Amino acid sequence: MNLKEKIIKSRIARLSPGSEDSLIQRLESELSRPPVAVPPVKEALEITGPPPKKEKRPTLTEADDEDFRALNVEVHIRSKKHGDIFIVPRRTGAPRFEILPEEIRMLSLAGATFDAKVAEVRYNVPA
Predict the structure, then answer these.
(1) What's the farthest any 2 CA atoms get from each other in the chain?
(2) If both were cysteines, with which of 20, 54, 70, 78 could 15 make a disulfide (CB 3.0 to 4.6 Å apart)?
């Protein structure tokens, strides 16, 4: 007897015959249903080759910076780790974290140069 059958039988035992006959009949019909067939689990494929290599992103250029500026748009990125980040063509002076396209290019080049990723970016606020 499986767990579902045990639960149904204990529920039937708590019901009072006469006033709850329709519920008892419905629960007993659930007991008489054949179990649902579970499809067999397929075996996992064996990994025979090396893992795929990371795709290299194309290097950003000054032309990419100018293309972004020509669009005259702001991109709002919401990150769980870093919060709200705004990619802007020019600084607006708004009290938010804004980053320019050439700063993104510089961070990308630094990451590629040192084979690393950006861990933290901070504002340098004069004292």
Answers:
(1) 84
(2) 20
> Where do the DSSP E strands lie in 1-127?
75-79, 83-87, 98-99
Over residues 99-103, mean pLDDT: 91
Scored b (16 or more CB within 10 A) or e, 60-77 reads beeeebeebeeeeeeeee
Q: Does a structural domain hold residue 42?
A: no
C-alpha span between 27 and 17 (Å, rounded): 13
Q: What is the pLDDT of residues 2-39, one digit of tens each?
A: 777 788 788 878 887 777 788 878 888 877 777 677 77
| Domain limits for position 23 | 3-32
Residue 67 covered by a domain? yes
Q: Which backbone phi and psi does 12 adopt, to 5 degrees?
A: -65, -40
Q: Which residues pair with 84 in a beta bridge?
A: 78
CA distance 27 to 8: 6
Report the C-alpha dihedral over residues 9, 10, 12, 15, rounded to 10 degrees: 170
